[in-house]
Amino acid sequence: MPPSLFAEQLLNGLQFGLMLFLLAAGLTLVFGIMDMINLAHGSLYMIGAYLTATFVGLLGNFWLAVLLAVLGTALVGMLLELTVLRQLYRRDHLSQVLATFALILIINEGVRMIWGSQPLLLSAPEGLSGPVELLPGFSYSAYRLTLIGVGLLVALLLFWLVNRTRVGMWLRAGASNREMAQVMGVPIRPLFTLLFGVGAGLCAIAGAFLGPILAVQIGMGESILILAFVVIVIGGIGSIKGALVGSLLVGMVDTAGRAFLPLLLSQVAPPEVASNLGPALASILIYLLMAAVLFFRPQGLFPVRT
Amino acid sequence: MGGVIVLLLLLAFPPIASAAGLEFYQGLLTKIMIFALAASSLNLILGYGGMVSFGHAAYFGLGAYTAAILVREGVTSGWLIWALAVGLSALLAFFIGAISLRTRGVYFIMITLAFAQMIYYLVVSFKQYGGEDGLRARRPEFGLFELTDTALYYLTLGVLAGALYLLHRLVHSRFGRVLQAIRENESRALALGYPVYRFQLTAFVLAGAMAGLAGVLMAHHTQYASPHLLSWQQSGHLMMMVILGGVGQFWGGALGAAVLLLVEEVLQDLTIHWQLGVGLILLLIVFFAPKGLAGLWRRER
Fold this sequence. Notes:
heterodimer; A: 306 residues; mainly alpha; two-stranded antiparallel ribbon; B: two-stranded antiparallel sheet; 2 strands
């Protein structure tokens, strides 16, 4: 196997992992602090992508469009928290699953009403469409490289926010013991509205940047939502560090599986078996990873509550 | 008593429907009864056992695919297909349950989902069995009778009635009470000396087998095995039915299946944006009927 192919897949895995992290971060904090399952988290990712595509169409400037989409989605997220989600914190997991599943249906249909059923076209900014030569003889997509940069930057910002600021201190306190944090004067309610805004904004960033690579269409939030859940369960619910490690693991394993498993299988199995089983095993790989992690560490890799 | 009345009404429906030219509704009722069976099986572990399995569609879909594949491979006996499908679903449930039941709470939800996703991708990857497109499933032979739409209706009704009778006996037996005791307080049940894991696993396997049978009936009904039957949205759909009808209420699964499918049917006739209506109704249920519809009814009496 040529080393350049290996390096390319490594970077692809890193890129996908970092984008997953943007979704998983908000999800894990909500899950960890309020013990709340929010299936509608992926819908915010979809809204972010649709808003970006719309603003690009209106303004013609990708970066400005992303900024507006992030702000818009953050607003939607906070509005959702204030109107619906806030009522669900004290309810059991089943009610949360049902209510947020209902939200998925409502938001999907709402998007269909506004934008129609056809997927939207969103293309990467022009300057980034070509490849960049990283090393002599090894080029990599400039756009994907930008994604890695953005992902790392946002991840660093988030770590700074969680580990170095007062709001972050509150969040960490809430994640390890909500009742105690509340008694110690952490303003949990407004903190949560804010957290939903930030989480929604992060979703929008992922949606905006993945839009040109995947597709801007109804239901795009659901498939990635499952991955985000896998990530936070592997990482340990409520842990930002766990979300990062989980995201990178899932991103790498998924990308590597898709790239190399069919190749590997074709070496040892007859071609028709390999071509059938390769993609299946690649899709299954992350779920195997999750099952294995939970088998050995039922609380995930970085459990928050002790 | 209510159950007997419903049974009599369902028995009388096909001749009345064909006289009135409402054959379409016979098919709809068949579908509702199939989902009532699947949702009731989920309610056994979810409602009575407190095990929130997010992968119940795996057994449902496996049943349907077993039927479709066997018929395609030349197995024509319906009874043999039923036995194999139920056996395979039970086996899969045993395997998944044995591993998943080591975890609790949210982790249990996620690990059952993970296994169901594996089954989904595995089935979809077999191109010779349709892959993403699904697989046609001709109806098998049942020896004594030909499986017409009406025969399937009565067959489904018989299976559903039998299954509900068994479930009723089961949840009111010692086994059912222990299962509910485990749901209420697992450590206490353990301290009382009950083999908690074995009880939970038994219920899990029973539910899986029953969902597998529902899947076979679904394949007979639509004459088609779709990958969608295995999808996580389908697991969610089944869970919606149980929550909507009433978690741990005996009629919860059947009631939820009937109401959700009827609401979907009516809204689909009214508007292309029917999912918006379904979503709003589900949301209202969560806020105003936290114990589900069966709970609402119980409170009013």
